[in-house]
């Protein structure tokens, strides 16, 4: 009941026209912290029945919706059309950066706590593991059902995806370079649960337009081909194929003029990659 009430109050704040001015007020930060505590409590009290739901609420209401509000509200500050141009050292920028850093700290702590609580052995999958002290002696057997252990393993996977997302959002800010950190978290999420394709979709988003979208296309295709694919990858892939077709036809229209060897090489590489992407789009099945 307390979770539902806190979510309702946060929804009212986000529905306000001036929400971006309200979300970082002390009382609203306190409300999100309260919801976070309640969700964590719910996760460990009833992991099978409410664990996944509590995780989703925590991520969306405490972190993700605030991030989306700041990213999409262009009226927040005059140059807000791009996060690269948030006023340096403004109150909003500081609050937003703190929000992202706090999120990373929280999910790292949660990741360690789940491993410790359920005595998960993830040393072969990730480098952010709970290390037990060998001097303590034998571990007590964990009293958890198979379903609870399954939830714990997948909760660690989702923590790593959330950490990757937070690092990716940090990377969009001026003066921050966390691309490799985000990539690391996504690949570790794949190590914990290789059958889940979602991290490949996030890696595609992280890749952006590198190599004329070839890298992102590869990631989206891997996501789609995973045992458990992510629905959003289909739309992302179609968008890139549409871009490829447009670029291919523009290249064909361009006049061939004499270029220096270095510029010609660059032009040839672009033509090769764009043509390759266009060919990929033609070879894709039209089922979607």
Task: Describe what this molecule looks like in 3D.
The chain is built from 11 helices and no strands. With 288 residues, the protein is mainly alpha-helical. The two termini are 41 Å apart. Residues 75-82 have low confidence and may be disordered.
Shape: globular
Distance between the ends: 41 Å
Radius of gyration: 22 Å
Largest sheet: none
Helix-residue proportion: 55-70%
The number of E-state strands comes to 0
H/E series: HHHHHHHHHHH
The proportion of residues in beta strands is under 5%
The residue ranges in which pLDDT falls below 50 over 5 or more consecutive positions are: 75-82
Structural class comes to: mainly alpha
Number of helices: 11
Mean pLDDT: 88
Domain DNA/RNA-binding: 182-281
GO molecular function, one term: telomerase RNA binding
Domain Telomerase activating protein Est1-like N-terminal: 53-173
Keywords: Nonsense-mediated mRNA decay
In short:
One of its GO terms (biological process) is nuclear-transcribed mRNA catabolic process, nonsense-mediated decay. The protein has about 290 residues and is mainly alpha-helical.
List keywords for this structure.
288 residues; mainly alpha; 69% helix; nonsense-mediated mrna decay; Est1/Ebs1-like; DNA/RNA-bd_Est1-type
Topology readout:
Layout: H1 2-14, H2 19-22, H3 26-45, H4 47-72, H5 91-118, H6 146-171, H7 179-192, H8 198-207, H9 214-225, H10 232-253, H11 261-283
